[in-house]
Amino acid sequence: MRILADNLIPMATGAAFLATGGGGDPRYARLAVQALLETTGPAEIMTLADLPDDSSVISVGMSGSPSVGIEKLPNGLEPLWAVRMLEDHLEIKADALISFEVGGGNSLIPFLAAARMGIPVLDADGMGRAFPEMQMETFSIYGVSGSPMAVVDEFGDGGVLTARDDVFGEKLLRNIGLAMGGECYCAQYVMTGEEAKRVSVAGSLTLAMRVGEQIIHHRGNLEAFLIALAETLAPTSYGQLQLLGQGKVVALDRQIVGGYDQGTVGIETFDGRGRLELLVKNEFLVAELAGERLCMVPDLICVIDVETLEPIPAERVRYGQRVAVLGIGAPGILTTEKALPVVGPRGFGFDYDFVPLG
Description:
Layout: E1 2-3, H1 8-18, H2 26-40, E2 43-46, E3 56-64, H3 66-69, H4 78-90, E4 96-99, H5 109-117, E5 121-125, H6 138-141, E6 149-152, E7 158-161, H7 166-179, E8 183-192, H8 193-199, E9 201-202, H9 204-217, H10 222-233, E10 241-257, E11 260-269, E12 275-281, E13 283-289, E14 292-296, E15 300-305, E16 322-328, H11 340-343
Parallel strand pairs: 2-5, 3-4, 4-5
Antiparallel strand pairs: 1-2, 3-8, 5-9, 6-7, 6-8, 10-11, 10-16, 11-12, 12-13, 13-14, 15-16
Helix pairs in contact: 1-2, 1-9, 2-5, 4-5, 9-10
């Protein structure tokens, strides 16, 4: 599938929706990719089914606080520098690139390297949403090591790191990102085509594009959008869709802690049910109403503007916004006995087990 500049708006919009509040604002990544494609021509998305088993695949994206990315703009070459650095270190050549996560700006960042390298981006990712830490990628959960990893900033500072495991690798990456101003770009998770098929969430980029098309088409009509979204999700590995509530943002507690955006969002519901509370660590992790947990990670909690249907990243939530909060069942690859200790509530420090949406 060829990706033109015109495809980027719906893809970025859908990726922001699937990001569950995190992944970085896709606006700047979209503009950078759009400018690049006007020079290089269309980019290519390849399905996992079309990927040869003996291919070399590298994952690339941005790590850091999404809030920092609003003001600390990249130069657009960081993903290419990171991939080339890792290729040189391992003496390999990548046949395809893959996103860390379908959510937000990280869904588009691989195109900044792939279009210049003349290779495809896979229609897949390592989360099916967005998560804040690298060991939470399905690549890591199902046995592909994130080490060695190449890390760079917008000045070309960087190097190749190794770590004893991905949990410690996340600590290294996070602290280097802090030294680089709060965010950095990383290439890692080198795998074969066979491994990529086994450990990835398939079809996520084209799903983001379809969701974005529905948002754009149904602006101003939340009810019609929910019907269309349910139909779009039905044939995928995602679970059910549920409207958790609508209301006005009346409380915000948000700060950057250790390279993460953390805090809570309070939403006074229009129907008088009380205050809907969202717990945040880069992404919206838990939705609670009057002490009842309505939805929890790894299920998706997506916040959109009631009128425009535009997804609202966690770092752009503001007092007075009128929002709708949606819950979506996570892809099955995130809800296994192997995955839940890492991406379920206990993986984020909550003292309770995962209860699926609904």
